[in-house]
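Our preliminary data section would be incomplete without showing what the modeling component actually yields. Below, a chain of 467 amino acids is followed by its predicted structure, encoded as tokens that our downstream tools consume directly.
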Amino acid sequence: MLLAQYSGRIPGLFVVVKKNTFFTMPETVEDKTNPELYLPHPRVRGMTVLNREAFKRTVVVPALKVKKEIVSSVLKSLKQSVLQRPGLKRVVEDPEDEDSRFVILNPHKIPEFSLGESEQQVLKELSVHPEVSKYQLELTYENFKSEEILRAVLPEGQEVTSGFSRVGHIAHLNLRDHQLPYRHLIGQVIMDKNPGITCVVNKTSIIDSTYRNFEMELLAGENKLVTKVKENNIAYELDFSKVYWNPRLSTEHGRIVELLRPGDVLFDVFAGIGPFAIPAARRKCRVFANDLNPESYTWLLHNCKLNKVDTKVKVFNMDGRDFLRGPVREELSKELLLLKEEQKTAFHIVMNLPALAVEFLDVFRHLLVGEPCSPAGLPTVHCYGFSKHSNPTRDIQERAEASLGTSLAGRCSTFLVRNVAPNKEMLCLSFQIPADVLYKRPCPDEAKPASKRLCTSQDSSAEELLS
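Predicted structure:
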């Protein structure tokens, strides 16, 4: 047996072994190739206060001796077999030979510390002797992935959370009850393993349907919740503790905005800080954006100025119903009256409040008074909702039909936005408001010349009380 002991120039004990020789490692070293080889030491199980030193573990891995001038070629040729670990060097010095290096290999790809035929053929072409060495590798906290650390710490068999929503420098978690005793450790691990994260919070209450915010607990890092985000090449600033922001909706925001053309009009009923309104304004649409939350209203104004669209967006701080019955009705009454048959202006109404938006659809019943405009001019509504139904598409359509008082069969489309939780979907129902829903015909005794005009909100206020 050929043995080269540790020389002081690299960490750990170094051993070169001839093929088919038996080699016994010290008892403190784990010489086995199994799926748990790269898990942290078992002593970390149940840890609630992070101790990084406790994660040190020494394992035995295969290594290949090569001349230093061909290291790059070997790495490229054996890239599927080279060991990949966070913060780990794939190439280490040879303590016996300054002109050689050792390439660390993945023992799961090199079973029994023996190279396969394909690897041996590659090495033959590079004039590298295919003899495999055993190398004692010390793994530390830095070499483990966050999910490996959390799986080792939490009780066996329990769900591990390593995913989170990133909002600028903030990581937002939604921990289960069984994970709460480990929440501060989980927060620290998430912050350690994700560059740029300096604050980790956990949601401690459900989202409030009124202002769409929630209570949160700081788990790790600085308590700084004003942050900057970028979505679809547009920058936003916000206070995450006071307004609603969900990075998982980026694709949906982009999908709706892509439907808009320059000159279109967008009414954003629950606008938040502007992820629909601001990109729409940048597409040269006219935008009316509203949010009930005073903080969202303030940040919406701020982000309009930040993106230089403050002159293109009219911002309101109203209840959604009041916004629809006030500014939206007034603008539609004016615009649809002037709309000519050949004009291609489209009117879109976005209602992104999934917990309640469907219940607001009844506002469109006889919102306008007068002769209907051309079918092409009827506003298109994009209404969001949650569903736990076995057939969520049918469920959201039926609920919308109940609010509108009419059938949408053949007149609507449904888009599955995302799965929010097991058996809970978020959907977007899009439809043009039927003319017989949107319009209330004028009274028969009105003068005929006036019958073709649209009544304003003041004209129809008395009629609304009766309808």
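Residues 193 and 417 are 29 Å apart (CA to CA). The first helix runs from residue 71 to 77. Preliminary results of this kind motivate Aim 1 of the renewal.
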